[in-house]
Amino acid sequence: MERHHKFSIWYVIFGIWVVLLLNNIIYTSIAPVRISYSDFLHKLRQDKIKELAIGEKVMTGIMLDDKNREVRFATVRVSPDLAKELEGHNIKFRGEIESTFLRNLFSWMIPIFLFVGIWYLMMKRLGPGAGVMSFSRSQAKVHAEKDIQTRFDDVAGVDEAKEELKEIVQFLRTPERFTKLGGRLPKGVLLVGPPGTGKTLLSRAVAGEAGVPFFSISGSEFVELFVGVGAARVRELFRQATERAPCIIFIDELDALGKARGISPVGGHDEREQTLQQLLVEMDGFDPRSGVIIMAATNRPEILDPALLRAGRFDRQILVDKPDLNGRRAILEVHARKITLADDVDLDILAQRTPGLSGADLENILNEGALLAARAGRSEVTMADLEEAVDRILGGLEKKNRVINPREKQTVAYHESGHALVAAYTPGADQVHKISIVPRGISALGYTEQRPTEDRYLMSRSELLGKLDVLLGGRVAEKMAFGELSTGAANDLQRATDLARAMLTQYGMGKTLGPVAVTQRNQPVFLPQDSVMAPPAQELSPATAAALDKELKSLLEEREAQVEKILTDHRDLLEKVAGELLQKEVLDGKEFRKLLGLEDKQ
Ligand code: ADP
Ligand code: MG
Ligand code: ZN
Questions:
Q1: Does CATH place domain 32-98 in 3.30.720.210?
Q2: Which end of the chain is less crowded, N or C, counting CB atoms within 10 A of the terminal residue's CB?
Q3: Is the CB of 319 under 6 A from ligand 1?
């Protein structure tokens, strides 16, 4: 199919052949009779030449033939002196022009061949999609992988994600069972998580487990394509996938393609937007019961176009987080299957030494260890090799700020325990869902996740105060445990300050302003935030501003005192939770409340 669209050297050869053929036909049909110069002289003497046009080399004209019919003729001139001489000897003679036809042909063919050759080389050099000529369906080519060998067993440490994906596998195996009941599965599943945590691997495992074809394509591939090709490719992708359902379409690095369509200062559509548009159209247009599941992966969900996350598109998001201690151990085990380990290797110790590393990093460690052993000529990989590998990998990552030392880890453990404890002992605060000190990036070294037990749209003053307390909990706990503050609480403090200020200036909960709201921010509702400049906050008189600042400060100080009281009352628990957290790195809500000796509310 696609051959027809490709540029081919045979077209040129065919064209030349046609030109040659036509030339020949024209030459033989319209061309005058060619006679020799001696014949011409002969006719001349017989007065049989009616017309004559004398050119530099050729003479053409009309003569009468033997039956006295008029015929066009042509003859090549011979120098008159020579002609006279020759005639005397009764020789039949004629003029001859060397044929310049081939020479002419080559003189224009060779440059053409040269051009075509250079063009061809350049197209090859630039890779697929570069040549304008090659804009065609051949660029839209997609192909499916069959018989993928990856299984869920090859992915470790992401049990929650796996659990959620099992349902998808069930659906792909027996779509009838689901559709018979009229159930609707998510069309799109978005895997989100830091790089190297196994998102790509998981999606392949889903295809492997279900035994279905796997169409994979990367968001960044689309971006480098020529205008229109990306959209064509998306169309082709969905067409083929529907034909081969049940199957999986996997779009890796969705963020490259699905960046929010901002208000571009330059204006107009670009290629990426067109492709994204086409993707949205295709996702809307197909029936989820057809058995095609669209999966995508990204490590930057926050920049995705909101349209992608709407219901009926990527409406299910699955978090693929960095592994905790047990997860790291499991991942090390998976990859250790492939190498020969010495008896002294203790994967537990390696897992303990590597908080914050991703699955890809861990695989790297084992690989590095194997290389070190091979270099030393050992037949097994020893613990010493692996320890050195850890040092090397950590050393490399330290430069990228991704490793925290034990002292920092301790600080983070107390900090997060502080948040969690304050949340637990503040009436009306949201329940603690998860506490983690697995670093997730440069900014977040740990986190305490709270989940409301019910949907809330309004908050009372006391609930807002509770929120302030929880925010301050981390900082106060650090101060209590170590006697000094760290920079880790900067973000908490910012959020607490913003919240407190909002209470005083927007919600009318303060004394200075009373029931007056000052900050009037007309944020656009349907446009991305920050795309339009907010109008400046209303000016306050210097006296009022000073009073407001004073009230803000005293409010926060008051809350800090309250938090200190809570944590002092439960000092023993603070130690306990922090200690447990240091060991396990992650505590879920249940484990946390059990430590506190509290009832589980759910
Ligand atoms: P992502 O797509 O999330 O950036 P990948 O799936 O490409 O990460 O992971 C890269 C490699 O790291 C995988 O091929 C695998 O060998 C290893 N890896 C990452 N996460 C895991 C995991 N959870 N279990 C086992 N191996 C993993
Ligand atoms: Mg990936
Ligand atoms: Zn905090």
A1: yes
A2: N
A3: no
pLDDT confidence of residue 423 = 95
236 assigned to active site: no
- pLDDT interval class at 137 (50, 70, 90): very low
Cα-based torsion angle of the residue sequence 233, 206, 169, 232 in order, rounded to the nearest 10 degrees: 0
CATH topology of domain 141-319: Rossmann fold (3.40.50)
Q: According to CATH, what is the number of the domain 406-601?
A: 1.20.58.760
**What ligand has the least distance to the C-alpha of 191?**
1
Which residue's alpha carbon is nearest to atom 14 within ligand 1?
Answer: 201
Report whether 145 contacts 200 (CB < 8 A): no
Report how far ligand 3's centroid is from the alpha carbon of 491 (Å). Answer: 7
**Looking at the predicted structure, is the pLDDT value of residue 464 above 70?**
yes
302 within 8 A of 259, measured Cβ to Cβ: no
C-beta 156 within 6 A of ligand 1 = yes
* Catalytic, out of 209, 416, 478, 560: 416
**Where in the chain are the domains?**
32-98, 141-319, 325-395, 406-601
Label each residue of 295-328 as H, E or C.
Answer: EEEECCHHHECHHHHCCCCCCEEEECCCCCHHHH
CATH of domain 325-395: 1.10.8.60
Question: Which amino acid, 255?
Answer: D
Q: Is the Cβ atom of 83 under 6 angstroms away from ligand 1?
A: no
**CB atoms near residue 87 (< 10 Å):** 14
